[in-house]
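Open question from group meeting: does this chain pack into something compact, or does most of it stay loose? Before anyone orders reagents, we agreed to write out a predicted structure and look at it together. Recording both the input and the output here so the notebook holds the full record.
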Amino acid sequence: MDRDCRIRRNASSYRTLKALRIWFSLILLAAPGSWVVPLRAAEPVVISTPHLQVAIDKQSGALLQLRDRTTGFEMLEDVPQTTPLWQLELAGGTTIFTGTNARSFRCERLEGKPAGLRMVWRDFGAAHPGLQVEARVRLDKALPLSHWQFRVAGIRHGELRKARFPQVPGLRAQANEYLAVPMWMGQVMSEPRKTLPGKAGKGQRHEWAYPGLLSMQCLAYYGEGGTGLYVACDDTSAFRKTFAVSSDAAGHVTCDLSHLPETGPASDTSWQMPYQVVLGTFQGDWITAAERYRAWATNQVWAKESRLAQAQVPEWILNTGLWVWNRGRSDQVLTPALELQQRLNMPVSVFWHWWHGCSYDAGFPEYLPPREGKEPFIKAMSNAHAHQVRALVYMNQRLWGTTTRSWTNEGAEPWAVKGPDGKIHPEVYNTFTKEPCVSMCMGTPFWRNKYAGLAEQAVRGLGVDGIYMDQACTSLACYDPAHHHPPGGGAYWIQGFRTMSQDIRRRVQPADGARGAIGLAGEGCGEPWLPYLDLMLSLQVSKERYAAPDGWETIPFFHAVYHAYAVLYGNYSSLTMPPYDELWPAAFAPQEPLKLLDRKFSRQFLMEQARAFVWGQQPTIANFQPSHLQDRRAEMDYVLNLAVIRRLAGEYLLRGSYLRPPQADAPEAILDMSRLSIYAGQQGGLTSFQQRFPLVISGAWRSPGGSVAVALASIADEPLALNFKVDTDYYRISRKAEVYRLDAQGRTDLGVLPRDRRVSITLPARGACLIEFTSARKGQ
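Structure tokens returned:
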């Protein structure tokens, strides 16, 4: 239907032929060069390619149809849609505009191919006489995707606080539905229509902010074996935005994005979304969605300029065989690491909390001097270096305790993040002292200089090897007009982080010019931080340990996109109860900190380690004590065995790209799961639950050279026979590929891939290996 439409809602009658002719003439006079054929009241405006069809309501501009033309599946429900395409929130948060407020709406086709539409809403009343909203959509040439743009004009300076666009109404129900979200590492929810409405069943809105807890600009809602909705943005500057999925009490699911405009110069009376929203369909699962996003994302600046891609990650980080995440003074951290390194016979590095002079989650940023004193600390670091043990020390990169002397003495409050109300909003993390902290604004030179100066003192003055920048992969919107950034949304947070990280490296660069001698790590994952962080802490491999069952399952979503561009590490995996900060109130201290957990939780420990291994993370163990090498020998042997295999499989597990693993016939079991964190574990706070998990966890990887390997890790107490079929087309390998088994004993030749492409292997109890497929024989 090559027809344009222009509708004025105050034109109440055009039923007769005469009225239609008059209407048509007026339209031609108002817009020379366009032509319009009136549509029936219920008929939408449709654009399509061989891949996707989009329909828009001709009277309101609401999205009516998103159809995959390959399968014929319509993503939206066949019900009257009342959800407008967009919504504006003005200053004060009480004034909301949508397309239904406009007295004038027109829709016209865009010139060129593929097909596109331009929609304009005008006449919003005397209070906003010049307000005009424009949306454009253009279909993709090669894929079932549509690209959406948005612009608001005729607004007063600083008036627009939020734009919600596009709003996708009523997703059609399918069998076996899933919602996948890259919340940091990634998570997937099965049967979202049952879980999303909440325990009360009244319906809820679930939001994920980017850049921050949402590590990538995408999400996927799909039916297993059916069709999925793919939602993404093509923003390469990391502007603030929020992805959301909502469900009402009846289980109707909608999706939308909210954008936070930055406030420009006083002369600005318009705002244009500085990127496009991508809506489309796909057949597959969350890995399919990740592969689609990866095709775009790995061609963007943050991937090309990532420190791993640019060979800027320090060698000592790349060579780390195992991380020890301990807390306290040097004898509680460095000494255990030295003993573990002697046992492992490969480099061990430490991830060091509670080295600082202030209490945890309360006294930041008064880290210096170290709690054991400057000279003892330097001596301990010197001894660690003599044995090739390196240390990242904890320094939160945004919090300042408001009860600290420095908060007052250094006049920190003016440079803290301010909300739309112009006030600071304290955050309380320490459940014992209840002392508040405030987020400092990354857009201000004051905070960047303060933090970089502390990092310089720690590296140059104390000899540490790098900084763990807690809460790094998060960001906040700041509305303080006195700061050095546009108030509200924008890209200033990541720009400020870039400036700060570069300043830290400049300050501590060794005199001999050795590149990348220090490491900067950050909490969580986030694509905009790839050029600035050497490694990222990915703790969702241990999600069950710190979060109650909530319907979400951890998936390596971020890894599936960016593993070849990031070094990932971290694990809450521990054999003990949590430690207790000696600077916290003694009244809350447990009688036996670091007490060994019941052995019934051992499989949880193994599962956490197995996930990290097959998902390509550097192995990490928390709260390690040398006595564990004897007291929990089986568990520790498992960790050490995985570290050895990873060392041999670096082309896959360090530099490889994630692939969909084959389906292996592995049994499942109900495991006892402990739930405790640094706070939840105190005062008898250990809780437990049971959950079903597979006894073999798998991943698949393509090396930079094109070989493919399937990583397998068993947590079973008995040998398991596994059988899986290799999809040679998907893996892009020969049907006569050479097959090898790689484990701690080295590489074993298994011959040529069988004609039926099925591989049968046996994993020993708590065994692990990689099954490698290559077109050329490798050395034994």
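Observations to bring back to the group:
The two ends are 65 Å apart (CA to CA).
Confidence is low (pLDDT under 50) at residues 1-41, 512-516.
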